[in-house]
Specification:
This protein is α/β, with parallel strands linked by helices. The chain is globular. The chain folds into three domains: 293 residues, Alpha-Beta Complex (FokI Restriction Endonuclease, Chain A, domain 1), CATH 3.90.241; 39 residues, no CATH class; 178 residues, Restriction Endonuclease. The protein starts with a strand and ends with a helix.
Length: 559
């Protein structure tokens, strides 16, 4: 059990992407079902997780039990996918989640049940009725009411919606913010910063008046540090909320507008649960009753649970004219899901055709320019998606992005941690493409080893020769040295020598521009020549700097 410590809403931040819960819950279920959740099993869980193919990193070496609790007691437990008391157990929602069928629906049901306070999240006496809310439900209501909600509006005001009775107050604050923004005579950054500080100081007025401005893991008791820390927490929670709502498939993100809105075709579904779900938290003092409620896969009732509405949805999406009334409800949902997937594949295939004909060339270049300006809400996601589009356009291979796309073929979340971002099949050889916005030493620490591991995985799975292209706005010197060394090191764990070519984003963009000017689609031989050249230069260059300089020159003249 956890106690609510913040005077604002909080949302589960671990894992960042809800879909990453699935392999981790499976590890817990397959190896620890029926065991007591304690320090020993927590440490063993992290070790087992690190051994698997679906986890990036090593966990916290000094605090492995804490790492385990971070992975399991936040989203998986709080959302009802696992039960940890009296022993570890996969719940019915957990079973449905790891089945891979209709994950958006089961995630939505659990998000709509998440509440504060609850038997899992107790409200301390000092807060005295501050909390009384189902956070995701009320944020859905906020988006619906306002048409769209910007990230800053969610961070500054949405996080104050600690009780459902505050809804109209929060709406009023957002409307006032929008009005004042229109009349502001300073930059938006300055305007937002001033507004944010003012709201944080209002929320924590009592703490500030009493001089209680200590923050965790800091000796700095200044008001500036206190406000900055609280604002940072609100930012993290707002980001987590955006990502989990996105995973339901009911909302869409305006990357340039940094805002979230209900998908027009999903509006009726949202209207339904906003009008039917009880806003008051339930079974706050009764854990057993709360678990029965949380683990029930039939509640809350959703729009598609009504057979008449479901039948209409199936007919509208599929165009099927035969009598479907004899089909069970679950079968109808399967038909609808399959039809939506088929439609998405058609949309993506159309995108691919347009890319190969260079119809979207100008947009691809514009998106890269905006990535460099940090103009998007989720820059890493947009870099991954746009690099897939560029790779599809500049050569004739079969190019697959491992990121998740929504029903409209727009990017939803980045690739899982156990595979390369993009896989290119050129017939006689393969190519893994890895992209990152990380820079400095962190680029090497977070990307270096995993890139070589993903390349090894591609070699093993295809049984073919394979290379890797590593793209980032700036390439760290440690990565250059590491990739250079791997060219000549025969490491069995990585499937022999690893040919990884690092390129700065500007150079890759130049390669795309060359392919457009060429007037023809480059072939796989021209792609392969870059990596063969890299191998040859690694043998004769005096060091990694000379090798890297030659690689850049080759890329700038690859056609």
């Amino acid at each position: 059990m956890a106690y609510l410590k913040s005077k604002t809403l909080f949302f589960t931040t671990s894992p960042r992407s809800p879909l990453k819960m699935i392999p981790e819950i499976e590890v817990l279920h397959n190896n620890f079902e029926g065991k007591v959740w304690n320090t020993d099993t927590q440490v063993a869980f992290i070790k087992k997780l690190v051994e698997g193919k679906d986890f990036e990193g090593q966990g916290s070496g000094k605090h492995m039990a804490l790492s385990a609790r971070d992975r399991i007691t936040r989203a998986p437990k709080a959302l009802g996918f696992v039960d940890l008391k009296p022993v570890i157990k996969l719940t019915k929602p957990g079973e449905k989640l790891i089945s891979g069928k209709r994950t958006e629906e089961i995630l939505l049901r659990q998000l709509l049940k998440f509440q504060l306070p609850s038997p899992y999240h107790k409200e301390p006496e000092e807060f005295n009725g501050l909390f009384g809310v189902k956070p995701y439900l009320e944020i859905f209501r906020l988006i619906y009411e306002l048409g769209a909600l910007s990230f800053d509006e969610l961070m500054i005001f949405g996080m104050q919606l600690t009780h459902y009775t505050k809804f109209e107050l929060v709406v009023g604050k957002i409307r006032e913010f929008r009005k004042m923004k229109a009349y502001a005579e300073v930059s938006y950054k300055t305007f937002k910063g001033t507004y944010l500080r003012s709201e944080v100081e209002k929320i924590y007025k009592n703490n500030i008046d009493e001089g209680n401005t200590k923050t965790r893991e800091s000796r700095d008791l200044s008001l500036d540090k206190f406000v900055k820390t609280k604002a940072s927490n609100m930012r993290d929670y707002a980001d987590a909320c955006f990502r989990y709502l996105r995973a339901t498939g009911l909302v869409e993100i305006s990357q340039r507008g940094h805002s979230i809105s209900i998908m027009p075709e999903k509006r009726a579904e949202v209207e339904y649960f906003l009008n039917t779900i009880e806003r008051e938290p339930v079974y706050v003092e009764d854990e057993e009753k709360y678990k029965e409620y949380l683990f029930n896969t039939s509640i809350p009732v959703l729009y598609s649970d009504d057979r008449e509405r479901l039948l209409k949805q199936v007919v509208d999406v599929t165009g099927i004219t035969r009598d479907l009334t004899i089909e069970p409800t679950e079968k109808l949902k399967d038909i609808l899901e399959d039809a939506i997937i088929t439609k998405k594949i058609e949309i993506v295939n159309e995108q691919i055709r347009n890319l190969k004909e260079y119809k979207n060339y100008a947009d691809v270049i514009t998106v890269f320019d905006d990535i460099k300006k940090n103009a998007f809400y989720d820059v890493p996601l947009m870099l991954e998606w746009n690099t897939w589009r560029a790779m599809t356009m500049l050569d004739g291979g079969e190019i697959k992005a491992n990121l998740k796309l929504d029903d409209k073929g727009q990017p939803m979340s980045t690739a899982p941690g156990n595979m390369a971002d993009i896989i290119c099949d050129y017939g006689d050889f393969g190519l893994a493409v890895e992209v990152t916005m990380q820079s400095g030493q962190k680029q090497y620490e977070m990307e270096g080893e995993s890139v070589s591991r993903h390349l090894a995985k591609l070699k093993k799975e295809t049984g073919k020769e394979a290379y890797c292209l590593f793209i980032a706005p700036k390439i760290n010197a440690s990565c250059i040295a590491y990739f250079y060394a791997l060219h000549t090191m025969n490491i069995a764990f990585y499937g022999g020598k690893s040919v990884i070519v690092p390129l700065e984003l500007d150079i890759f963009i130049n390669m795309v521009e060359q392919s457009c000017r060429a007037g023809y689609v480059p072939n796989s031989k021209q792609v392969k020549e870059i990596f063969e050249y890299s191998i040859a230069q690694a043998k004769v260059s005096k060091d990694e700097n000379e090798w890297y300089a030659k690689i850049k020159e080759k890329a700038l003249n690859w056609l």
